[in-house]
Amino acid sequence: MGEAFRPGHRLVGVAAALLLTAGCAQSPAVATLPRAAGTAACTNAQVLAGWTLTRLAKQTLVVPVQETDVAAVAPEVAVGIGGVLLFGSSAPATLGSDLASLKAKAFAGITPFVMSDEEGGAVQRMANLVGTIPSARTMGATMTSTEIRALARRVGGRMHSAGVTMDLAPVLDLDGRAGPNSTDAIGTRSFGTDPHTAAVDGLAFSGGLREASVIPVAKHFPGIGSATANTDVGPAATPPWSTLQTRDLLPFRSAVAVAIPAIMVSNASVPGLTPRPAGMSPAVITRVLRGDLHFHGLILTDSLSAGAVSGYGYTVPRAAVTALAAGADMLLFTASASAVAVVTQAIVDAVVAAVAAGTITPIRLQNAVRHILTAKHVDLCA
To answer: Going edge to edge, which strands form the sheet with 262-265?
Structure first.
């Protein structure tokens, strides 16, 4: 069993350790350029104001690719795409060198995030390279938070060695049901139904990743463990907002408190807060996550190709525009290898047109990229 939660003990320990390791994420060595006395200090925000809308839009995109053929997205990386998401179930032994070659093509030297879903249990992309991870439910029931952290550090080290820089984990949703399945997206992907235990164990997992220089992403804000359906399949709703605030939201509050670097927002609607998918809602992102919780890190959407999004009436480009306008920073989608370039261009065109039409302000788009570059430890002034 996971250790019993004691206020001021496990959570504070995890928080302290995470804060101490916050600077461990991989960052390029940068030199500070000398500046003339009396001149204003250069900032990323100032530089981004000079980027074209097209370049800004491309940096917000995460393109999908099979881990057995990462070179397929070399054209997207070469024009400045912000991230690459690996799909598959068995990574090639050459993944590290394949990804190094891909990153070498990055536009202006700003390498994309390389993301994978290494949660454990039913959700792993590269177990053959990093080792098999128990499900979150099994970890929560059989391991202490210290053991969970050590496991994540070991797995994260292998991910980092293979060139993967971001793990779309931990899952902080609360769920005791039998999923994941067609009606329940979470199930055994959850550390448990107790918000305190889920917070401590989930943040132990994220802490281990950070110590291995892999960026963790807490998901799926504000909690879909009790959603009415699987958002991958079709529209779904969480319990009422008043209920989420007293239960499902608590692990995410803890994650924000220890400055987790990235959070993924769900595609479920939240009665009493938003009728649309949460990742496209300014009430969820701008009002609650940025405003009430004071989260300053990177915000990612869940897949904009999901059934919950199309079922609400959105195309992927329209969903991308809506999500950016609502406050999201990075846009995820799925597509066949032959369709990636087409979908990517359609999203970029839609975002640029939305800025021209006033649907997205230039500052909102620049701020999205600023959050991305901060998470990448990129200093445009260096």
So the answer is: 215-216, 166-167, 113-116, 83-87, 61-66, 330-332, 298-303, 262-265, 218-221
Taking alpha carbons only, the member of 63, 108, 64, 101 closest to residue 81 is 63
How high is the mean pLDDT of the chain?
92
pLDDT > 80? residue 4: no
Residue at token pair 């804000």: 221
Domain locations along the chain? 43-376
Q: At what angle do helices 10-21 and 250-257 cross, to 10 degrees?
A: 40
| Domain 43-376, architecture per CATH | Alpha-Beta Barrel (3.20)
Which residues, 6+ apart, have CB-to-CB distance to 10 below 8 Å? 3, 145, 200
| Ordered alpha helix ranges (H), 1-52 | 10-21, 44-48
Q: Are 118 and 155 in contact (CB under 8 A)?
A: yes
Contacting residues for 283 by C-beta, under 8 A, at least 6 apart: 273, 274
**Residue 358 burial (CB count, 10 A):** 8
Indicate the angle between helix axes 195-211 and 250-257, nearest 10 degrees: 30
**What is the tens place of the pLDDT at every residue in 200-234?**
999 999 999 999 999 999 999 999 999 999 999 99
